[in-house]
Amino acid sequence: MASLFSRRDFLPAGLKVVQVEIAGATIRFHSRSTKSAAACPRCGTVSRVLST
Question: Where on the tree of life does the source sit, at the highest rank (predicted)?
């Protein structure tokens, strides 16, 4: 049976899954950036500090 979903449907480029938790009907993915710096989506300033 072919999969209806791709990993990219759930995990954008630049992120990697570091932990998966399953509790009842809930699945929680913990992810981390694979980049050492990123641009602020609001002002475009590049920073090495990434926040969630």
Answer: Bacteria
